[in-house]
Amino acid sequence: MTQPRQADSPFVQAFRGSFTSALRWPQLDALWDRVREQADRGWYLYAVGEPPPDAPADADSVRCFVDELDALLRAEHQEDYCGIVYADDLDDPTFIKVYDPNNLGMVCGSSGGPPPLPGWILSLLPPEDLSHGIPLPGGRRRWWRRILGR
């Protein structure tokens, strides 16, 4: 059972912090290289809409996730720019938000409501449930579970 969010928790503070976009594909390549190099750093892999993980992923799972997520982004976001991956620090990331290419209308648009949630988060902090019970779409759920072997 996930714990209720605390507005001042370290995870929520980091989530609401300052982020920089990997605007171009080469910037995303460099970011992924840094994550792969530091795969054993204690990354939590969180698909928003699924229960947050209780423990960091092992290094092989982190590398696999980055490879699979990169392939998904390139296949489904066929633009000459990336712009849907944000890190707290592109050179030394500790928190990365990845928006789902299938929900970009929500990300790019301004409806006056709360900001849209990312599809996935890589964090060195234990994640908290951000979805408030909103499940992942079926296709994304199957993709996520295949990646994590669940």
What does this protein look like?
This protein has 150 residues and is of the alpha+beta class. The chain has one domain. The chain contains 5 helices and 5 strands; from the N terminus they run H-E-H-E-H-E-E-H-E-H. It has a 5-stranded antiparallel sheet, with no helix packed on it. It is globular and about 35 Å long. It starts with 9 loop residues before the first helix and ends with a helix. 27% of the residues are buried.
Question: How does the SSE layout of this entry go?
Answer:
Elements: H1 10-15, E1 20-21, H2 25-37, E2 44-47, H3 59-76, E3 85-87, E4 95-98, H4 104-108, E5 120-123, H5 138-148
Antiparallel strand pairs: 1-3, 2-5, 3-4, 4-5
Quick one: how many beta strands? Answer: 5
Characterize the overall form: globular
Walk across the major sheet and give the strand order: 1-3-4-5-2
- Figure out the total of helices: 5
As a percent range, the share of strand residues is 5-15%
Structural class: alpha+beta
Helix and strand succession?
Answer: HEHEHEEHEH
The pLDDT mean sits at: 82
Distance between the termini: 18 Å
Radius of gyration (CA) equals 14 Å
Structural domains: how many: 1
Task: Give a quick rundown of the structure.
The protein is α+β, with helices and mostly antiparallel strands and 150 residues long. It has 5 helices and 5 strands; from the N terminus they run H-E-H-E-H-E-E-H-E-H.
Descriptive terms for the model:
150 residues, alpha+beta, 5 helices, 5 strands, 35% helix, disordered N terminus
